[in-house]
Amino acid sequence: MEHHPLEGSKMVKDVSLQQLKDMLAEFARVRGWEQYHSPRNLLLALVGEVGELSEIFQWKGEVERGLPNWSPDDKEHLEEELSDVLLYLVQLADVCGLDLGQAALTKILKNARKYPINPT
Ligand SMILES: [Mg+2]
User: Fold this and answer.
1) Which keywords does this chain's UniProt record carry (predicted)?
2) 87 CA to middle of ligand 1, Å?
3) How many Å lie between the centroid of ligand 1 and the Cα of residue 42?
4) How large a percentage of the chain has pLDDT more than 90?
5) Residue 10 has what pLDDT?
6) What angle do CA 52, 87, 77 make, to 5 degrees?
7) Handedness of CA 6, 8, 9, 10 (dihedral sign)
8) What's the pLDDT at 13?
9) Shortest CA distance to 100 belongs to which of 84, 113, 89?
10) What is the DSSP letter of 71?
11) CA-to-CA distance for 107 and 111, rounded, in angstroms?
12) Where does residue 32 fall: left (phi above 0), alpha (psi -120 to 50 degrees), or beta otherwise?
């Protein structure tokens, strides 16, 4: 099998949203897929992936943090579906012309003001 240039990406530390955004834009561009990546289409794809993510947990009952009883295959499946959700979310923000990283930081700060820490 041909060695793909992204093959070593497990070594990349501190992956940024910017990096993902750029890689996804290039991925779509070279395949001529930009025409399909309207905000609405990306939103529907995102919702579909959230469904796939939900399926992993469906009927399992409550699951312990760290997933101690899950097989490596199940964990890999979860990684893939979480990634699908993230990647569509990043693309959706991109085609809407929004800076998702900045928006998320702003939202955390807003939440912190809305929910102050109770002095004990
Ligand atoms: Mg998926």
Assistant:
1) Cytoplasm, Hydrolase, Magnesium, Metal-binding
2) 10
3) 13
4) 86
5) 67
6) 40
7) positive
8) 82
9) 89
10) -
11) 6
12) left
Rounded CA separation 102/39 (Å): 19
Q: Is 109 left (phi over 0), alpha (psi -120 to 50) or beta?
A: alpha
**Going by C-beta distance under 8 Å and a sequence separation of 6 or more, which residues neighbour residue 16?**
101
Give the model confidence (pLDDT) of 21-80 as tens digits.
999 999 999 999 999 999 999 999 999 999 999 999 999 999 999 999 999 999 999 999
pLDDT value at residue 4: 66
- What is the Å distance from ligand 1's center to 52 Cα? 6
Indicate the average pLDDT of the chain.
93
Residue 66 alpha carbon to ligand 1 centre in Å: 21
Tell me the whole-structure pTM to 2 decimals. 0.88
CATH: 1.10.287.1080, 3.90.550.10, 3.75.10.10, 1.10.1040.10. Which one for 18-59+68-111?
Answer: 1.10.287.1080
